[in-house]
């Protein structure tokens, strides 16, 4: 089982990192799990320039760290996305990953399980979690759990015993979901509608301009039930 954890805070020892490190530690207890922790602070990332090349060719024009990150995610069984709350939103670094990571169009998380983690100090932690969760579900993931943690800046969220217990519970459920391929019928139905009514017809109408996207869908067997004539 391969799991990728992304810390969207520049602070590698901040509140978000401490929670994600605890999740990493919990996952490491399972002998069949290979976990990769990625800190945005270690990545070289340019902004998306909106050229649309990735839709056409399937890859970004920039040769920085984004394609390797997308590849790690595409090969994983589960992802954990964590971000601090900045102005009731995710961090700028996380937004760059969202914009450039081909998440929604490519259905990068199709068939995968996910956990969303946000931290905040005063207000807006739920807003940033909503943003991450929407990204996860639009990208095809099934969400095993969400953690929204309120802490004083520079304090250790893990001093809260209830949070630690919750982390353990959520990670355990996530692991079991991947093993048992839990269906999450409501989430799957919502995703089916979003994909079939919104994303797929939009992409098909674009024709060869979106060839790269269709190649990725075929490779990952996205909407595997659709016949070849429809493609
Ligand atoms: C630029 C910036 C904007 C922030 N905006 C908010 C906010 O809108 N609401 C809030 O409750 N906390 C806000 N915070 C506080 C952080 O979300 C909070 O301290 C978070 O736990 C920091 O995570 P980290 O230690 O992993 O970086 C902000 C912090 C910074 C640096």
Query: What order do the strands of the largest sheet run in, or round the barrel if closed?
Result: 2-1-3-4-5
Which compounds are bound in this model? flavin mononucleotide
The CATH superfamily appears as Flavodoxin domain
Largest sheet: 5 strands, parallel
CATH topology: Rossmann fold
**Number of distinct helices:** 9
Structure explained in plain terms:
With 231 residues, the protein is α/β, with parallel strands linked by helices. It has one domain (2-219): Rossmann fold. The protein has 9 helices and 5 strands; from the N terminus they run βαβααβααβαβααα. A 5-stranded parallel sheet has the order 2-1-3-4-5, sandwiched between helices. β1, α1 and β2 form a beta-alpha-beta unit. α1 packs across α7. The mean pLDDT is 96. The protein binds flavin mononucleotide (FMN). Flavin mononucleotide is lined by residues 9, 11, 14-17, 84-88, 119-124, 151, 153.
How is this fold's topology laid out?
Elements: E1 2-7, H1 15-28, E2 34-39, H2 53-57, H3 66-75, E3 78-84, H4 92-100, H5 103-106, E4 113-120, H6 125-138, E5 142-150, H7 161-180, H8 185-205, H9 211-219
Parallel strand pairs: 1-2, 1-3, 3-4, 4-5
Helix pairs in contact: 1-7
Flavin mononucleotide binds next to helix 1 and strand 4.
Keywords for this structure?
single chain, 231 residues, alpha/beta, Rossmann fold, five-stranded parallel beta sheet, binds flavin mononucleotide
Quick structural gist:
The protein is of the alpha/beta class.
């Amino acid at each position: 089982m391969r799991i990728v954890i992304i810390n969207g805070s520049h602070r590698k020892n901040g509140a978000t990192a401490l929670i994600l490190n605890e999740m990493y530690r919990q996952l490491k207890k399972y002998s069949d799990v290979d976990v990769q922790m990625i800190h945005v602070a270690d990545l070289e990332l340019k902004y998306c320039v909106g050229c649309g090349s990735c839709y056409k060719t399937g890859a970004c024009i920039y040769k920085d760290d984004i394609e390797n990150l997308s590849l790690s995610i595409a090969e994983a069984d589960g992802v954990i996305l964590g971000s601090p709350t900045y102005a009731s939103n995710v961090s700028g670094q996380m937004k760059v990953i969202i914009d450039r990571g081909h998440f929604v169009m490519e259905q990068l998380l199709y068939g995968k399980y996910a956990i969303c983690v946000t931290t905040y100090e005063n207000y807006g932690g739920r807003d940033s979690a909503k943003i991450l969760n929407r990204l996860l579900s639009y990208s095809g993931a099934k969400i095993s759990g969400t953690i929204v943690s309120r802490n004083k800046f520079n304090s250790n969220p893990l001093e809260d015993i209830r949070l630690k217990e919750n982390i353990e519970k959520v990670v355990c459920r996530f692991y079991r979901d991947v093993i048992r391929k839990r269906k999450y019928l409501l989430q799957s139905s919502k995703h089916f509608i979003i994909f079939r009514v919104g994303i797929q017809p939009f992409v098909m109408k674009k024709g060869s301009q979106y060839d790269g996207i269709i190649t990725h869908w075929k490779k990952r067997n996205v909407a595997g039930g659709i016949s070849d004539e429809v493609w």
